[in-house]
Amino acid sequence: MKRNSYTVTAESRGERLDVFISSHSGLTRSYVQNLIKDGMVTVNDHKEKVSYRMKEDDRVELALPDAPENLLVPEDIPIDIIWEDENILVVNKPPDMVMYPGLSHSSGTLMNAVVSICKKLSSVGAPIRPGVVHRLDKDTSGLIVIAKDDAAHHNLVKQFKEREVEKYYLTLLYGNLKTDTGEIRTLIGRSASSRKKMSAKPKSGKEAITQYEVTERFKFATLTKVRIITGRTHQIRVHFASVGNPVLGDKLYGKKTVITFPHKTISFPRQMLHAYSLKLKHPVDGRLLEFTAPIPEDMKRAIEEIGD
C-alpha cells in the first residue's frame, strides 16, 4: 500500500475532492471516485464524499492499493524517442494514438509502448498511467515527457503548475485570423450542452491563456504557432473555435474536415495540431532542456495541398 499526502492551496480552493486528487495524482477521475467510495481517501483525517469542496490548507491523504502487475500490458509498438536518461523519457507521440488504456482503448496506447521499453517509471499515476505528467489528445501529435521516478515526476508537475514549462504547437486553422499575433484569454470549463466538450463561456471554469503568431496565410486557412500559458483540457481547440477559426479537422469543435476549392477538395482526417516544441528544466540537475519534433507527414501534406 502506497500513501500520498497533499495540502490544498488557494488555487485549488472550491475544487471537488475527486477533481483535486485526479489533477495532483495523475489518476483517472473514475478511479479516484472508486478510491474515495472505498474509504481510501481522508480529508483532515475524516472521510468525505466525492463532491466535497476543497478548502485552503485542507490535508488530503490518499492510500493506493498495490496495482495488479498485468493491468498495463507491455506491447512492442515502435515509438519515436526524442530523449532518454535515468529520470525522464521524451517521445514524439504519433497522431491516432491514445495516451493510456481506458474503456474504449484497452491496448495499443502510448503507455503500452512505453512500459515495454522502460523497466522503471514513476509510481505516480499508477496503475494505468505511471509517469504521465501531461497529455495530448488522441488525434494531436507531438512531444510528451514521462517521468521515470517519483522525485522527477513531482518536480515536473510543479514546473507545469507554476507555468515554467514552455509548450509550443503548430496548428492549421480554418479561415484567416484577424491579427498576426495575439492572445486569447477566457475561462474554460465543462460545456453545459455536452459532457464531452469544453467551453470558453462556461458557468464556471478556470483561467485559460493562449498566445499565437501567424506563420503563413493561405486563402482558406492560417498556419499558426501557438503557445499555451495554461494547460486546460482542449484549450487550443476551444479557444480558436471560440473566435471563429477552429482547428481544421477537429470533429468536436470545428467540424471543418473538408475544404472544397474550385479545382480540388482537401480532406483532414484528424485535427491539424502538433506539439512541436517543449522547453523545461531537467528535474534533477536543473539544466534547461529544449526538444523539438518534426511535423508529421499528414500535416505536411495538408499544408502543401492548401498552399498549391
Provide a concise account of the structure shown.
The chain has 308 residues and is an alpha+beta fold.
Kindly estimate the percentage of residues that lie in beta strands according to DSSP: 25-35%
CATH architecture of the largest domain: 2-Layer Sandwich
Number of strands: 15
- Distinct helical segment count: 6
**Alpha-carbon distance between the two ends:** 60 Å
Rg = 20 Å
CATH topology of the largest domain: Pseudouridine synthase
Write the H/E string, N to C. Answer: EHHEEEEHEHEEEEEHEEEEH
Runs in which pLDDT lies below 50 for 5 or more consecutive residues are none
- Which class best fits the helix and strand makeup? alpha+beta
Assembly category: single chain
What's the CATH class of the largest domain, please? Alpha Beta
CATH superfamily of the largest domain: Pseudouridine synthase
Helix content: 10-25%
What does this structure look like?
With 308 residues, the protein is of the alpha+beta class. The protein folds into three domains: 2-64, RNA-binding S4 domain (Structural Genomics Hypothetical 15.5 Kd Protein In mrcA-pckA Intergenic Region, Chain A), CATH 3.10.290.10; 80-161, Pseudouridine synthase (2-Layer Sandwich), CATH 3.30.2350; 166-307, Pseudouridine synthase. The chain is built from six helices and 15 strands. The chain has helices at residues 17-25, 29-37, 110-117, 150-161, 235-242, 297-307; strands at 2-7, 41-43, 59-64, 80-84, 88-93, 141-147, 166-174, 181-190, 198-199, 206-217, 221-228, 258-260, 265-267, 273-281, 288-292. The strands form three sheets. Strands 4, 5, 6, 7, 8, 9, 10, 11, 14 and 15 form a ten-stranded mixed beta sheet that branches. Strands 1-3-2 form a three-stranded antiparallel beta sheet. A hairpin with a 7-residue loop joins strand 8 and strand 9 (198-199). Helix 1 (17-25) crosses helix 2 (29-37). The longest helix is centred in the middle third of the chain and has 12 residues, at 150-161. The chain is globular. The protein starts with a strand and ends with a helix. The mean pLDDT is 91.
